[in-house]
Amino acid sequence: MESTRFVLINTSHAGNVGSAARAMKVMGFGDLVLVAPRFADVLCHEEAVAMASGAADILARASVVPTLAEALDGVDFACATAMTPRDFGPPTHEPRALFAGLAAREAAPRLALVFGSERYGMANEDVYRCHAVLSIPTNPDYGSLNLAQAVQLLAYDLRQALGGFGVQARTPDPELADARAVQGLLDHLQAALTDIGYLDPAAPKKLMPRLNQLFNRAGLTNEEVHILRGIARQMSKTANPASPS
């Protein structure tokens, strides 16, 4: 199922093809097949490449075939995507539950997800070629999805059924400044505040202890200490332009 094929039938908008390729790549899939697209050169169309946004390699490897039968060559289990229930045809499933069941099989099938035209969806005869119909749970009063949106939703559910990618580890927190570094900042800042006339050394009151408490609560990093000391240095330089830097 890692090599699931995404099949787009009779696509009419090049941008949707590019966006679909992007949606696939984000979820780690790369097998794209177009069935009789409106424009034969859609895979290299400027809008398709632009909307792929870094997934142009998916477009470069994609295939264009004239029929759905050819697109499903080598596939064990094909899933149609259709909003309108058919009176006759394969059973309808909620995607997440079906994917979980397929992934749990001892021998998972080679899967294909089949999407219809933006203008009229999937024809009945194409639906009948599939083993199941996937119905994305949407607002019952408005269930219209853009083609690429549908590809993204199903690709996400499938990836989750396969175990997902997990949350990317965040960048480690920068190293906090130690007490010595903070004290050095306070001494430097005290001198700078005196230089600009904000602090009276004869009557400092509790300004510096309060700044000390402020810095302790903030949990300054070494980089932040360097920045604040740079500001203090510039304050003293501005107040005493004749002094050596």
From TrEMBL:
Residues 5-156 form the tRNA/rRNA methyltransferase SpoU type domain. Keywords: Cytoplasm, Methyltransferase, S-adenosyl-L-methionine, Transferase, tRNA processing. SUPFAM superfamilies: alpha/beta knot (SSF75217). One of its GO terms (molecular function) is RNA binding. It catalyses: uridine(32) in tRNA + S-adenosyl-L-methionine = 2'-O-methyluridine(32) in tRNA + S-adenosyl-L-homocysteine + H(+); cytidine(32) in tRNA + S-adenosyl-L-methionine = 2'-O-methylcytidine(32) in tRNA + S-adenosyl-L-homocysteine + H(+). Coiled coil: none annotated. It holds the Pfam family SpoU_methylase. One of its GO terms (biological process) is tRNA nucleoside ribose methylation. InterPro entries: Alpha/beta_knot_MTases, RNA_MeTrfase_TrmJ/LasT, SpoU_MeTrfase, tRNA_m1G_MTases_N. Its EC number is 2.1.1.200. Its main location: cytoplasm. GO terms for cellular component: cytosol. It is found in: Cytoplasm. Belongs to the class IV-like SAM-binding methyltransferase superfamily. RNA methyltransferase TrmH family. PANTHER family: TRNA (CYTIDINE_URIDINE-2'-O-)-METHYLTRANSFERASE TRMJ, TRNA/RRNA METHYLTRANSFERASE. Catalyzes the formation of 2'O-methylated cytidine (Cm32) or 2'O-methylated uridine (Um32) at position 32 in tRNA. Homodimer. This is tRNA (cytidine/uridine-2'-O-)-methyltransferase TrmJ. It comes from Pelomonas aquatica. The gene is trmJ.
